[in-house]
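pipeline stage [seq->struct] | target=Mucus binding protein Mub | organism=Lactobacillus hamsteri DSM 5661 = JCM 6256 | residues=939
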Amino acid sequence: MVSRKNIQEKLRKIEEKRERHSIRKFTVGAASVLIGLTFMGMASQQVKASEITQDTVAVENSTIDSNSEANNVATEEVAVNNDSVGNSEVTTEPIENEVSESSASVTENNNSSSADNSSVVTESTKNESSSVAGPSTSVSENENSSQVETSTPNQENNINQVQTEKTEDVKKPSYEDSKAEVDKINGEINKDLEDVVNKAEEIDGVTVDKKDPNKVTTGTTDIDKNKAEIIANNKKQIEEILKALEEHKAALKDYEGKLDEYNKKRDEYIQQLKDLGLWDENEHIDPDKLSQLLIFGKEENATVTVKPLNPNVVQGTGSMLNGLLNNFWQVNDTVHGDFLQVTYTDLKNSFYAGELISKIEITYSDFIMSNHPSQNNRKPGIYFGKSPTDGFFYVKAESVTMGLKMYDANGKLITLGENTAYITIGSLNSKGEGNDYVEKAEIINGSSHKGEGVALPESSVTIHKGPNGDILYSDKNNELLYDKNITDAERELAIKIWGKDIVDKYLGWDDSKDRSKEIFGSGLFKVSGDGIKIKFSNKLGSAWATFSTTIPKITFDAEKPEKPTTTITWQPGQLVLNKNSSAHIHYVDVNGAVLNGVTNFTPEHGFELSDQKQSHEHLAIGDKYDNILWNWEEAGYILATDTVHPGATNGVITDDVQHIYVYLKHKTETVNRDKEVNQTIHYVYEDGTTAAPDHVSIKLVFTQTGVKNLVTGQIDWNGEWTKTQTFVTVVSPTIDGYTTDRPEVGPYDIIVDNSNFNDNLDKVDTVVYTKNPSPDKPEIPEDPTTPEIPDKPEVPENPTNPEQPTIPEDPTTPDTPEVPEDDSTSPGPEISDDVEESVSPLPEKTPSNEETVTPKSQDTSKETSKVATISSKNEKNAVLTNLSTGEKSSATKTAESDEAALPQTGEKDTNKAGMFGALIAVIGSLFGLAQIKKRKKNN
């Protein structure tokens, strides 16, 4: 079939020409599938008309709007189903003014036909809103044939424009009709492809891989077009499969020739083994004929978990075999039963029947302590490595039993089928029966697992019956041949045991670098069931127990040719009929793309708000629909485009499902936030009670601007904050008789930013007032000594009237001493013998709020009154009261200031000043008494 794309390409390049498709009779008998496919659907080929034996012929008329001025043509495509062989002829002729009618006729071989067997479908261009005119088509029906005739009108003005007259309306098929047609096509369309695949499966070495169907969606008007697409794809697959099969057959033929040659040489080699007594057809099994589905791969990255099961088992240190076996667990005594469990997980290279083995669990049991002298200085226990196939090394033990279980990727215990799994026990060294050094392996049969020995040709290991199952070991001394380094005496002994030919052939069989001869010391168990249990023993007391799933090969060194394999991958086709049709309105959040500067949007630029999707389904083609848009503004969205697609509000249901997209972005608004900072100062006494009302400063308010996303509710606080604000200095109030610990509080500079917005920035201070202490009582000075009394005057000899003694003047009351301004002292006042006066203390001098007396060595001063009393022998007492010496002579008045400080008084300075005043009073009294005595003497 000529594809639509190719036809349109030709029409574009050719002007004064037209295409005529005709179908002629071509009878197809019972042709093979390959012949049918060769001639079916050949695109762009010129062939002769063909005769079709099938009933269904679909003529697809592809039309373009008749109003178009250029490239307006009508084409006819003839499609046949996959059971038909169609040959179409495409001829190109110059277009004349007079265009003759062209017709396509189909004659069917059956006796009954109707116009219904011929489907005429008019395909309109997708999303085309203008009317489309169809071609003029007439169908004449005869008893034995049906003819479809299409007339092409005359062309005007020699341009490539074809006007068609619609003589008969073609009824559009219903959805149910189209569905039935698609079901029928799907039941038949892959038959040829399936036939080829089924035949390929029968060929040796061919594997078939079927993929999920290639689903081709179709509408009601393009079923034939999409059917042709599937047929073409199936044809291509058939061609590729046939080509691959031809190549495989050639490779298979070459393989068979090489295999015959290999088998011939192998048979000759086996005959040599028979001559040596190493192959017995009645006993030995050919390893090449064993089917092994169990694979233990090297697991370098396995995770090893160890669980001791007996108190006599403890973890030890050390390694064996150059660090290969780097885990050592010490067994301190004979243990009957399980004593250690080792689990290997995270396996990647182990399989059974093609399925991954994800975990191998090995349980060690029955550690029988050895008393062999060679083991006296060794620690009993077992060494094992990080991979199960490393095996284990047992020390100071006559025997150890190993139980092995396998689990699949789902953690399910694996059960081995009959004749599908084999375990090779390698390197079974022996010095011959009757010696201590004989390595043995015994299969332990149980109710859910079993095994048996398999006799291998070329092996020195033979099968012996044991109490629990077969035992594998060598009756003869194969230890002589394990290494190529052999003495002449050992060689002579080996020849006596084995014969020269075997010694020459198998010397060095246990070489770690050359494993080509390992079969000589290997044994094989066939195993089945839900586990494998093997007892390893050696009377010498130690051995390396190894096991694997690699079946040893005979030493025949010819390389066996590899059988060729081919995998055929095929994919059936399937037509999928669209639903009646529908229209869907999608709302897409493209806010991220908007932020990146995108202006032309596709659905990939954002994500769909699936909860808001609006669908109009199950409507007939041509029905109108109206849609009420989702109120996106309530959700905080606004349009990301200038307008909304018209189909979002109303439209017409088309053949194809419509998807209309409304692109939205997030609406934002500017918001502010404030941060208030307060200052509070508490004034308290020492006991916590309030000393003065709290000081509360005017709060500081800081503001920042942000952008709020009305969809998410998130706010981006990216604006600048109000700049730094300050709480000014606050002077603490003065309280009489108390001293404050903080005369001033502040200032504080407050800064608010995003880093401390959530912090408490309030300033709270507490000022404590301490009561001034009471002054100390002054010390009373000692009484001054009593002044001497003057002698009585002498009586003259001639008594005369004696003169009366002069009465001394009353002593004046001494002035109250002033508070000295410096460190100098003032003399005390004179005191009369006859007069007794007391000097009252001056009232305390309290500094005003405007002045503060600050002594030289103290921050504060305190007022203290001290009184000194002086008495004489004649009981004339003078009381001297010193003024309060709360101010030192060096004290000065402080200057008045706007921020007056609370007066500070110091008890220590007050006491010193009081004592100083008392001393001045005493000195003054003494001085006064001396003056009185002097006057008396003078009198």
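stage status: PASS
auto-comment: Residues 791-939 form one domain. The first strand starts at residue 17 and ends at 22.
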